[in-house]
Request: fold
Amino acid sequence: MPSLAAANTLSDASPRFSRGVAKGYAVTARDASDVATVQAGALAVAFDELDDFFEHAPIPFHCVGPDGTILRANASELSFLGYQRDDYVGHNVAEFHVDKGAADEIMRRLGNGDVLHSYQARLLAKDGSTKDVLIDSSALFRNGEFIHSRCFTRDNTAQSEIDSRRRLAEFDADLGRILAEVATCDEMLQACAAAIVTHLGGAVARIWTLNDDEDVLELRASAGRTTDVGGEQARIPVGSLRIGRIAAARAAHITHAVVDDPSICDPEWARHEGVVAFVGHPLVLGERLLGVMALFGRAPLDQITLAALASGARLVALGIDRLRADSELHLAHDRLSAIFDASPGGIFSMDPDLRVTQWSAGAERITGWTADEVLGERPRQVPDEEWPAFEALAARARSGERVRGVETQRTHKNGTLIYVSVSLAAINRSDGAPYGYVAIIDDVTVRKLAEAARLYMEDMLRRVAAASLDMNASLSIDEVLSRVTTNVQEILDAQQAMTIAVFDGNWADATVSVALSDRYAEWRDRVVIADGHGLQRAVCEENRAVRLSRAELAAHPAWGALAEGTDARPALRGVLAAPLIALDGSNLGLVQLSDKCVGEFTAIDELILLQMARLAAISIENAHLYEEQGRTAERLARANGVMDEFLGLVSHELRTPITTIYGNARVLRQHGAALDEADRATAMQDIEVEADRLQRIIENLLILARFDATQAIETEPVKLESSIRSVSDAYMRSHPTRSIDIEIGDGVIYADAQPTYLELVLGNLVSNADKYSTSDATIQVKAWRDEDNVRVAVLDRGSGVIPDEVAELFSPFYRAGRTMSVAPGMGIGLAVCKRIMEAQGGEIWAKPREGGGAEFGFSLRVASDHLEAGRGGADGLAAGGATHG
Amino acid sequence: MADVETKAVEVLIVDDDPALSRMVRLNLLSEGFRVRMAIHGADGLDSVANHEPDVIVLDLQMPVMDGRTFFRELRTRGCAAPVIVVSAYGAESARLELGAEASIGKPFDPITLVSAIRRVLAP
Reply:
């Protein structure tokens, strides 16, 4: 029991409702009368009882003065909280409230005259624990002055714990609902933060998640006093600040001294917001850190709240993980779907019985079967005969073998054969039971066909190359054509083959080679005519290939008749023809095939034939050039022979007169006196004649060398008769046995000529006539007027001329074969005459003479000054004579 | 040279060029030979058939019958008289070809011909 002295002291200091208050009443009683004393005694008893009642009441009770000082606390209260009286009474009541604002609020409300009923508060016990209490309180006022409060404190911890657990249960339920319902991570986190604030109290709840690089915590949710997820705490490196250290250590951190730790938050903000407590939990799942969840509290956090936060952190971590997994699952699903549908290959899955369960667009594209047609069925592209092999493939996959790129044949819905590459994987459930198969098929038909085509073409190219060598191995056109024909027939597998070489479009001289199989043996010996029929002409004129199937040829409006055989050629059964094209692009003929042994001629056959025709054309052109060259060489050799012969002639013709002259001169000098007169005279004349002959030969050779056809000779009026007679006389003098008859017609006066050359021509013609005439024959020389020309002819009765050889008679060194043995000579005299006449603007001719022999003649223009004189007629000769006599 | 020997020698000239034949004849006569003349191969063969000369001077290019034909026919007929081929062109090659006894190219000095005649007649 407390002493009265103490009570007096107290009552002096604060005479209010307490033991002190009771003492106060006692003093008052002492100041009263005796009656009052008795009454006072009774009162004292009552006070003591009352005092005892309060002191030992089973309900905790305390009084607080207006300044917050605890004036009195009963044993129950001290016991309830565990304090000694001095630890408690006399201290400010706020020290014992866990919630800092609570004491002030209670005092404020009591000060306002409120009566508090079951005011929830948390008191700090001596052992540090928090006592949840319900406070019923009212204030004693005297004269409007607040004297003290009277607070009954009921221990509500059990109830509070129940409440807390309910809150926790609600919190858990709410979190569960959020985790179950909220689809996105940010929404989920924000809802969780809000739930924390709602259910567990506190100023702010925040959640960070670890970024993909796992080095920074990103603020994703903030609820309570601030919902801003920006600011300094938006990105916190792992290991940095308190949040980062919680993440790094994967350990929760709890403190009730927030303002002392600036790494948690800005102390100013904490102070301003009244934040005192902080709890941060790492969000971990197994070993994986997912983020950090934190609650900033305004009051110390009780164990239940902390436990709730800890369990909440696990739930949030689970939620994050689930949503991430969902997201990844979605992504994976989307990716798979995209792959499934976008894959150029076909993808399908099957159940363990090999029934299709999924069927991609690619599979439909490759096989032609739609998903509707195959779902629940066996893959219909696998033909029945291939089914055992397919099952074996599945068994291999089931046994864990890698089945990749197995190439096999499948049937397209439209019935065509396709080549596919199959990859197959077996899928098992987690318990090992078979779930089914996934198959990927790739259409490799094009590649397979290309491969086959490549092999075929390689073989063809080898054969074409060999054929090319073979075709080139001859330089005879006939042989080349024969090789071309047999090669194309063999390579392109045709029953009929024909090559026609046509040079310069001359079909009449076409060279033909034919190769026929035994089926057409009866035509082998027949004469095949390269008639350049329509088809051949089309190929050659347009230099293009023609390819017609049997039916196309038979139905062809122009060439259909070729499908019918004739005696000369067998019927064509389809045709493939390619032109032979020379290097300069001109046509050299064609190669034509018919009756392909198997099937019809294909586009590839056409390409090959075109290629072979190209090669053949080169061979044919080479052979043609070679043969041409041979002919040229022959011509050159002949020309060389002619030249050799000419040299022989020149030698003979020059050396013979020289020998004669020299020999005669010698015999005259040495034996002249001993010779008889006749021999001496003959020798002298021979010298003269041979010298004359020598001179003419040299003149002729010089003219031949000097003149060309374009050269003009300067002419002058020459009295023709004088020239004729002069030449004739000279000739008869040197050839005394030869007689020459001269006949000059009217009007033959002056001709435009060069006198020396004119006489040379006359001399040559006379000499020529002399050479081919018998010794007793007379040579005739005639001249007559023909309009503005004069014509001169030298006529003999020799072997004559053949009209066909006239042109050649005037070629240099030409000597008619049949006259070569008759008369010597070089074959230059007539050529010289022709050149001289042409250079003088005249003509020269040769023709058979009536009655035998030859006529060689020439014409010259009448000299311009004398044109009129000659036209008069009969007296031309006389007039000419008069003029120049 | 002994006159007796030369007097006995008769030369047949087969050449289509009368001026040349006349010149050769005149020179040979002056040297003491006897001379006959033929204007081509056929004419020559007739002459030989009539009387075999001691030596034949033969031109190659002649009308009617050329020198080569004459020579072959001559030998075919068994006439062994030595033949001197005279030609302006290829006389020696013709001699080798035919197997004639001598050749002279035109133009020639008549003395060369005389020497050749004597040489082919030398034992």
Q: What stands out?
A: The mean pLDDT of chain A is 83.
